[in-house]
Amino acid sequence: MKQGLSLRVSQHLALTPQLQQSIRLLQLSTLEMAQEVEQMLDENPFLEREQDEAEREAFGVDHVDAPVSLGDQVSEWAQDGAAAPPTDRPAEAGPTTDPGSDSYEDTPSLEQSWDGDGTVELRPDDSEWGGDAPARQSRDDGEDSTSAADLASEHITLQAHLHEQALALRLNDDERAALFFLIESLNDDGYLDEPLEGLAQALLAQEQRERPRALPPDEALAREEDWGQCLRTALHWLQHMDPAGVGARDLAECLKLQILELRNTPEAQTALLVCEQPLELIAKRDVKRLASLCGRPDELVRGALALIARLEPKPGRRFADVERQVVVPDVIVTAQGRGFKVQLNPEVMPKLRVQDVYANALRGQRGDHGAGLQQRLQEARWFIKNIQQRFDTILRVASAIVERQRSFFLHGELAMRPLVLREIADELGLHESTISRVTTAKYMATPFGTYELKYFFGSSLGTETGGNASSTAVRALIKQFVASEDPKKPLSDNQISDMLKEQGIECARRTVAKYRESLRIAPANLRKAL
After folding, report:
1. Does 3.90.1150.10 match the CATH number of domain 459-527?
2. CA 275 to each of CA 233, 270, 290, 307: distance values in angstroms, whole numbers, following the listed order
3. What is the pLDDT of residue 357?
């Protein structure tokens, strides 16, 4: 084996800490972003939240109020009267963080690390950014300003609603404890998942932990039976509380409890018999089979199925935690003249700045202690920069989506055009993975409602004219067909496919079935009115 020396030149991409942080911040949702900001405020003494009006940052925020016209291009982006295209970057804005590409524009800045450049002086970009974003303030002008978050904070849970009713019952201490235990054991839908035997054992174990001495086996068994009896009594009271059907062990029992609360009619009596049959027969609306099993005429079974269809399968639904359902948009789109105005939601934009008092105190510090503080100062600066770049990228992508889907903002989802991630990526000079991160868990408030940015992307279907139709528009058309169908003669997937062909859209029956299932629309046999 002969030894020798050789020279080889190669390139590789090194992800610096600030670049890794930029990629991570880009894919965070609004809630996760707020949590990240709070954590950084707690950990970094050089970072602070500023509520007062301050000078606008040079990077990104000048794009906040960018209007999008209905023409072929986005209107000029103005800052202090000087126009600049959205693709331009200020020289001090840092590297172009395209996480999916193999090269970056500003190579020297990538070679920097958290150690900084050795300076400790304040920079112009250390001041607050997002100056146009007003702080959250309560309104005392007498107007109705209740937000969804306020409503969520005032929301009464199912357990609180049941505990309030339990106060009016005359129960002994054990029965009241058993009822409290049952209420706390309900799931979000109002069902009791655990068997009474297991709950009795849990109550006995809890009681024994509180006793100074353990019970003998015979006494423990007798006490467990006592708890079982108390639980059965408590379950009887629980299942007679509001909402009807709460405390049921399964769907059939839930339906029965609600039927028993109704007026005693032949349909209600038949509905009780129907609930005792296999649930798949009820789901399939097999009137003939149910009539045979229940010994009732077909008309009564149809009336019973109609009654069951009006019942609530999840009694705890209306007590669900609405706070988890609140969606805060990242971008707001409003009509403005003949075009649309795209702006970031000021409520989700954190207003941060570097703590100038600490930074000035650090000036002139030397040694290991000073170097560590300089690193923390540089972290604070990069964190502000990365947040700025995150919102700037979101705004650029949202503006490009509005421009491409302007027909949607004029006419609704039926006018949606086909759009894929690569189109926006090519237009903005970003990688598809970057667009994917931006459009995930980010929301846009439009005149037609609030949608995730991914909603505006859809595959294309061929048309007779040689053009393309968006799959989103086809779904909307299917929903419209089903909404206007005759309930006694619902449209089959084949019929919907034929109707789409009449509209010039080539859509096979299997594709219609896939779109119908994604819209959670039942098949024709289950949509048929009894």
Report:
1. no
2. 24, 9, 10, 11
3. 62
